[in-house]
Amino acid sequence: MKDFTSKVIRGIKPSGIRKFFDLASTIEGCISLGVGEPDYDTPAHITEAGSRSLIEGNTFYTSNQGMPALRQEIRSWVKKKYGLDYEDNEVLVTVGGSEAIDLAIRACIEPGDEVIIPQPSYVAYPAEVTMVGGIVKTIPLQAKNEFRLTPAELEAAITPKTKAIILNYPNNPTGAIMEKADLEAIVPILIEHDLLVITDEIYSELTYGSNHVSIASFPGMKERCIYVNGFSKAFSMTGWRLGYTLAPASIMKQMIKIHQYVIMCAPTPAQYAALEALRHGQNDVVAMREDYDDRRKFMLGEFKRIGIPCFEPKGAFYLFPYIGNYGKSSEQFCLELLEQEKLIVVPGNAFGDSGEGFIRVSYASAVEELADGIERLERFIKRI
Ligand SMILES: Cc1ncc(COP(=O)(O)O)c(C=O)c1O
C-alpha cells in the first residue's frame, strides 16, 4: 500500500516539548518546571458562569464569529487598553490563540512567501508556516539584547519575498518583552517594507514593571496587524480553549471563512466564561500577576545563588537561563537532569536553533515546587 500521508506534514518535526513530557510520564516522582500553563484554578466566578450557561441550556452553536456580547466586550477591552477601535466585522472568537494563529497564517501566507520568525519562538509558528508552503526565515535573537528584536536584525532579514513577521511579546520561551521604545524603532521598517504583522500577545497581562504595549497601537500599524490574544494565560483558562483575533475587515473576512468551514464556532460554555472573565475578572488577573512576580523574583535570586546566568525576563512566566558552560547540549542537559534528578525543564533548542545553550524554566508552579526544582538543579550542576 502507498503512504497516504502528506509529504509536507511528514517533513514537520513533532514538538520537542512533547517529547520530554512523554518521557517524563514514564518516570515516577518527577516534578516539572516545564509546562507553559498557569497552575491556578480558573477563578470560581468564571467557572460558575461557564457551568451556569450549560445548566441554562446554552448547549448550541453560537454565531460563527462568537457571541455578539463577547465580541463587544473584546472590542471594549482593546479600546480601553490600547485605544484601538475595531468594528464588529473585525473580531473573531477562536479556539484558543492557537486557532487564531493558524487562521492568520492560512488566510495570508501563500507558497513561497517568506515569513520572519524571531527565535527562540513558540513552537507552533514555524510548523504552521511550513504547512502552507511558506518559507520560514528565522532571526536568531541575542541574550545580550534581552532577546528583543533590534531594527538592524529586522532589516537584515527582509527580502523582496518577505510577506509577514510573527511577533510574540511578552515571549514564550524567553520571557522577553518589547517596550514602547523598542517597538517604535522597528515600526518604520515594517511600514516601509509593507509587511503583515501577526502579533501574538497572549501574555499581554503578564508583564512585571511596565504595562504591555501593543504594536497594533502605533500609527500605521493597525491596518497591517493581525492581533492574537486569548484567555488561557491571563485568566488561567487553558482547558477552556478560548481565544480571539482582531484584524482589518478585508483580512478578517478570509479568516472567518476558514473558521466557518473548519470550526463553526468556539465552544459555547467557554464563551460565557470568557464574557464573565472580561467583565469581572480584572482583580483575578492582578492577583495572579503579583503572585507570578514574587515567584519570578524568587527564581531569579535562586539562579543567581547557584551560579547559572539568567537575564531578567519581564514578561510571561518563563526564565531562559544559560547552561552552555556545562559542556552539554541543551537536550543532553535536560535528559540527564530528568534521569538523574527527575526534574523536567525544556531544552532551549526546542524553540529554534538559537535556543541552544539555554533551558526554559516555567515559574507557573507553587513556590515549594520551585524550591524543590532548584534544589534538584543545584545538585545536578554540582555533580557535573
Ligand atoms: C506564545 C503562545 N501563543 C499561543 C499559545 C496558545 O495558547 P492557547 O491556549 O490560547 O491556544 C501559547 C500556549 O502556550 C503560547 O505560549
Task: Describe the 3D structure.
- The chain is an alpha/beta fold and 384 residues long.
- The chain folds into 2 domains: 7-42 and 283-383, Alpha-Beta Complex (Aspartate Aminotransferase, domain 1), CATH 3.90.1150; 58-280, Aspartate Aminotransferase, domain 2 (3-Layer(aba) Sandwich), CATH 3.40.640.10.
- It is built from 13 helices and 12 strands.
- The chain has helices at 7-10, 16-24, 44-55, 68-82, 96-108, 124-131, 151-157, 180-192, 249-262, 268-280, 282-306, 330-341, 367-383; strands spanning 31-32, 91-94, 114-119, 135-140, 162-167, 196-200, 225-230, 243-246, 318-319, 343-344, 346-347, 359-362.
- The protein has a 7-stranded mixed beta sheet, sandwiched between helices. Strands 9-12-11 form a 3-stranded antiparallel beta sheet.
- Strand 5 (162-167), helix 8 (180-192) and strand 6 (196-200) form a beta-alpha-beta unit.
- Helix 3 runs antiparallel to helix 10 (268-280) and helix 5 (96-108) packs across helix 9 (249-262).
- The longest helix is centred in the last third of the chain and has 25 residues, at 282-306.
- It starts with 6 loop residues before the first helix and ends with a helix.
- The model has no long low-confidence stretch (mean pLDDT 96).
- It binds pyridoxal-5'-phosphate (PLP).
- The site of pyridoxal-5'-phosphate (PLP) has 13 residues, from helix 5.
